[in-house]
Design goal:
The chain is an alpha/beta fold. The protein has 2 domains: 75 residues, no CATH class; 324 residues, Single-stranded right-handed beta-helix, Pectin lyase-like (Pectate Lyase C-like, 3 Solenoid), CATH 2.160.20.10. 19% of the residues lie in helices and 25% in strands. Strands 1-2-5-8-13-16-20-24-27-30 form a 10-stranded parallel β-sheet. It is globular and about 55 Å long. This is Pectate lyase. It catalyses: Eliminative cleavage of (1->4)-alpha-D-galacturonan to give oligosaccharides with 4-deoxy-alpha-D-galact-4-enuronosyl groups at their non-reducing ends.
């Protein structure tokens, strides 16, 4: 249920700058309304004045409020913590031969869906025990962000992945490479100390940055396998030129970058390894292009305003997690699948989790073909056409998301079956479980999910609870502001 302001005697007019859409309470049956109103009145009166002083107080209040209310309604039990155990990532190498790129695709996608749910619930249980100062219920962030010495334990991030891309280890097993030079004068012979020189090396590398920098690439940045680009602790923008290409490689982590205003590049020679460079045709201008690659994790980036897509994964790519990103000001946001006729994308598996799809977005969050896609705990606050679309019989599993429809009465539907008659798409497996629909948003399910919802039931009421927590779980989406010696 949603409790209006008048129910607790609060005058919102003095706090008009706050986003109280994050504080709608849902799925709590059988609550004594008088007792709850008294509880809420006292809670808000204690914090509302501080919330007007600092912006970050808004996030903290929402965080504390959500945890306190869960304990108030459901009770908190210390015994609950031992019921779940997060999965840690293990090292996974993949051949670069095109036929072997996807040999590590998950045999049982449902098992990975359950692993995401278990990790989320485990984090939620820790949160319910009272660790309000740090733990948010986001299992990725709770794995590493509480560490004051994160800068000394950067590689811990590689053990925090979830979903289909959970085994992406990036450069965990290699040395650190410090980028000191934002230049990109020669894409064939890059200078040591540049980002291009770092990403083309054959050995595993964990790439960090000495200082804030804006990197304008003359050509697309072609990555080699087993690399992590880690922008934590500095403010790094890749902008106004070529952007990131992950092609026929494996085990890549992209974390903590601002990527925007990417432009088409190409018709030029570009180096892809110490021993190889070649002619590149025109690139589309994607922020991140994943092409025939596996075990890829794109986490905590801020992406906007590029010539084509923000994240595109095509040509048999698989084992991908796209998480904790902040997407804004773009038309076609995420594409998963090359074309309706490209059958190798049937093995694609991607998890879209804990992202914030924000202002200025139009469509494709994501747009799927073939494959299996888990869309979980995202915050959809803006779209102009639709949020989730697809063709060629993809399986789409939407759980615990928050969908806020636009005011346009003709754009309330979350879903869109692209260029397909209803007689065909009715057999596709698209389901919505525990999603929060706001401002008239609606999701049209199909396939088994439309007639046999009980068969998709998950543990307890995780879906409904997590949708009420989406504001807190996604409050840190995008590139983080991390300072040395403090929690990130």
């Amino acid at each position: 249920m949603c409790i209006p302001a008048v129910a607790v005697g609060i005058n919102w007019s003095s706090s008009a700058s706050l986003d109280f859409s994050r504080w709608c309470i849902t799925a709590y049956p059988a609550v004594n309304s008088t007792k709850l109103s008294h509880f809420l009145r006292g809670f808000f009166e204690r914090f509302i004045q501080l919330s007007r002083i600092f912006y970050w107080i808004e996030l903290k209040v929402a965080h504390i409020f959500s945890g306190m209310l869960e304990c108030y309604v459901n009770g908190c039990s210390a015994e609950e913590e031992g019921k779940f155990q997060t999965s840690t990532s293990s090292a996974m190498a993949a051949s670069l031969d095109e036929e072997a790129l996807n040999e590590h695709a998950t045999d049982d996608p449902e098992e990975v869906v359950r692993s995401v749910e278990m990790a989320t619930q485990n984090s939620t249980m820790r949160r319910k025990l009272g660790y309000f100062s740090c733990v948010t219920g986001n299992p990725i962030d709770d794995c590493w962000r509480c560490d004051n010495k994160w800068q000394l334990n950067r590689k811990r991030l590689a053990d925090c992945g979830i979903g289909f891309g959970r085994n992406a280890i990036g450069g965990r097993d290699g040395e650190f490479y410090v980028v000191t030079d934002p230049g990109d004068d020669d894409p064939v012979n890059p200078r040591p100390g540049t980002l291009r020189h770092a990403v083309i090396q054959d050995e595993p590398l964990w790439i960090i940055f000495k200082r804030d920098m804006v990197i304008t690439l003359k050509q697309e940045l072609i990555m080699n396998s087993f690399k992590t680009i880690d922008g934590r602790g500095v403010n790094v923008h890749i902008a106004n030129g070529g952007c990131i290409t992950i092609q026929f490689v494996t085990n890549v982590i992209i974390h903590g970058l601002h990527i925007h205003d990417c432009r088409p590049t190409g018709n030029a020679m570009v180096r892809s390894s110490p021993s190889h460079y070649g002619w590149r045709t025109m690139a589309d201008g994607d922020a991140i292009s994943i092409f025939g690659s596996s075990h890829i994790w794109v986490d905590h980036n801020s992406l906007s305003n590029c010539a084509d897509g923000l994240v595109d994964a095509v040509m048999g790519s698989t084992s991908i997690t796209i998480s904790n990103n902040y997407f804004t000001h773009h038309n076609e946001v995420i594409l998963l699948g090359h074309s309706d006729s490209y059958m190798r994308d049937k093995q694609m598996q991607a998890t879209i989790a804990y992202n914030h799809f924000g202002e200025g977005l139009i469509q494709r969050m994501p747009r799927c073909r073939h494959g299996y896609f888990h869309v979980v705990n995202n915050d959809y606050t803006h779209w102009e056409m639709y949020a989730i679309g697809g063709s060629a019989d993809p399986t789409i599993n939407s759980q615990g998301n928050r969908y806020l429809a636009p005011f346009n009465p003709f754009a309330k539907e979350v879903t869109k079956r692209v260029d397909t008659p209803e007689g065909r798409w009715k057999g596709w497996n698209w389901r919505s479980e525990g999603d929060l629909m706001l401002n008239g948003a609606f999701f049209i399910p199909s396939g088994a999910g439309a007639g046999a919802h009980a068969s998709y039931a998950r543990a307890s009421s995780l879906g409904a609870k997590s949708s009420s927590m989406v504001g807190t779980i996604t409050s840190g989406a995008g590139a983080l502001v991390c300072r040395l010696g403090r929690q990130c």
